[in-house]
Design goal:
With 144 residues, the chain is an all-alpha fold. The protein has five helices and no strands. 12% of the residues are buried.
């Protein structure tokens, strides 16, 4: 005689159905890791639109926006392991999601560097050229 509310069945996960569920769960975890890896792409698009709308003038709003846009990829790169630590125990290969995440953060940083270069805040190649040669004067004026 079974107690009230007792449901008979195999709940230990030893059946073939549990293996299928485990594989499906692994695929869902992998998809979730890839979604996390591609999240900087949304930030890149939003930042790119904001940079386009602000123009190339040197104003306080542009500088604050560029500071925020520069800090976001840097903090993303520094916190890569923290972002993916919830997937570490799940037995999912995280090499490709981490590489995608790092590449997208570098792309965001490159976008900021491009904007800084367009604004004239990064030195360009002509500024790094050889120092100008000073000519010696042909005449001297001396007053007594």
């Amino acid at each position: 005689m079974a107690p009230e509310g007792y449901i008979a069945g195999d709940f230990k996960g030893t059946s073939d159905d549990s293996n299928v569920r485990r594989i499906e769960m692994g695929e869902k975890i992998k998809q979730s890791a890839m979604a996390t890896a591609s999240s900087p792409m949304k930030q890149i698009l939003m930042t790119g639109v904001m940079m386009f709308m602000t123009g190339n003038t040197l104003q306080i709003f542009n500088i604050m926006m560029l500071g925020m846009a520069m800090w976001t990829p840097i903090s993303g790169l520094l916190n890569t392991t923290k972002v993916f630590e919830r997937y570490e125990d799940r037995g999912v290969d995280l090499v490709m999601p981490k590489l995608i995440y790092i590449a997208l953060n570098f792309a965001g940083f490159a976008l900021v560097c491009y904007k800084l270069s367009n604004m004239g805040l990064l030195p360009s190649t002509w500024e790094w050229g050889p120092a100008p040669q000073h000519r010696s004067p042909m005449e001297f004026a001396v007053g007594i």
